[in-house]
Amino acid sequence: MNSQEEKASILIVDDDPKVLNMLELGLQDEFNVVAIFQPEKAMDVFKTGDFDLVITDIVMPYVSGFEILRKVKDANELIEVILLTGELPDKAKPAVTSLQNGAHDYLLKPVKLFELKAAILKALEKQKLRMENKRLLLELVRMANTDCLTGLSTRRHFYAQFYQEFERSNRYNRNLSCLFLDVDKFKAVNDQYGHLRGDSVLERVGKLLINHSRSSDMKCRFGGDEFVLVLPEANHEKALAMAGKLRGLIEKESYGFADPPVKLTASVGVASCEENNFQTADELLNAADLALLSAKREGGNCIRFSNQATTLEYPVPTLTSSS
């Protein structure tokens, strides 16, 4: 919708030139008006403009006002529509039908301008409220789906995405890899330097995951100091390369809240779904988790890979400048 400093933009559709001219002249001082008398071209005009409101006659040749209403709502449900008609075989039925189909209001011809302007202002106010409610809802959803510390997905949101991606990969026989990453000896950071310092470590790790992965990769703070990265279309070689890159980047970081600066390492468990070797998403995630546990048991700062049947050692790669 246009800003408050601008006039609202209104598209008027009516096959009667006299009615169309009267409405355009009556509204143009207060609104930006585009008037067309060819209803079959209404949606073409609508798609090329930034309209806040549509006013349309119901009974017209080629296309009805109800069809325009439906197409407008399909394009943008927040755009309000006011329907006009001169036919009244049944006082209740046209009004009920229009409102059930999503119209803001229904006015009888001949239209009184003061009534139409009142309906327009009410429609615009309703639209403003709906837009604000939608913005607040989207913000609430974003907050619910995002870990406030790291900016990564929450565990619940991750599961919903992960299950969908596994089904897609399984259906089309595409590779899908999962990395389970854990910061080594993280508890000692909290115990020695406090939880705020520990939070700064987690925040830094979250940024590394965001900055060094693809936008299509799913990034999640799974819990505490554990992170999950899911790589669509990635085989085990690409997944192991990513694991090595992240492990090296974390080892390279230093934290200046102590003197000398604190250096940390990470362990990574990797599992890859290739040729449907995992039957469920939970199996793939669990395999990566078990690989991580194997890496932790062996002292950390290493990568272990699981192909479901076994957990294999994987040599720690050297981080190069090109990584």
What is the strand tally?
13
The low-confidence parts are 314-323
What percentage of the residues does DSSP assign to strands (E)? Answer: 15-25%
Total domains: 2
Radius of gyration: 30 Å
Backbone shape: elongated
The CATH homologous superfamily name of the largest domain equals Reverse transcriptase/Diguanylate cyclase domain
Order of helices and strands: EHEHEHEHEHHEHHEEHEEEHEE
Chain-wise SSE layout:
Blueprint: E1 9-13, H1 17-27, E2 32-36, H2 42-48, E3 53-57, H3 65-75, E4 80-85, H4 93-100, E5 105-108, H5 113-145, H6 155-171, E6 176-183, H7 186-193, H8 195-211, E7 218-223, E8 226-232, H9 236-252, E9 254-255, E10 262-263, E11 266-273, H10 281-297, E12 303-306, E13 311-314
Parallel strand pairs: 1-2, 1-3, 3-4, 4-5, 11-12
Antiparallel strand pairs: 6-8, 6-11, 7-8, 9-10, 12-13
Helix pairs in contact: 7-8
Word description of this protein:
The chain has 323 residues and is an alpha/beta fold. It folds into two domains: 135 residues, Rossmann fold, CATH 3.40.50; 160 residues, 2-Layer Sandwich (Alpha-Beta Plaits), CATH 3.30.70.270. It has ten helices and 13 strands. The chain has a six-stranded mixed sheet with strand order 7-8-6-11-12-13, sandwiched between helices. A five-stranded parallel sheet has the order 2-1-3-4-5, with helices on both faces. Helix 7 crosses helix 8. The longest helix is centred in the middle third of the chain and has 33 residues.
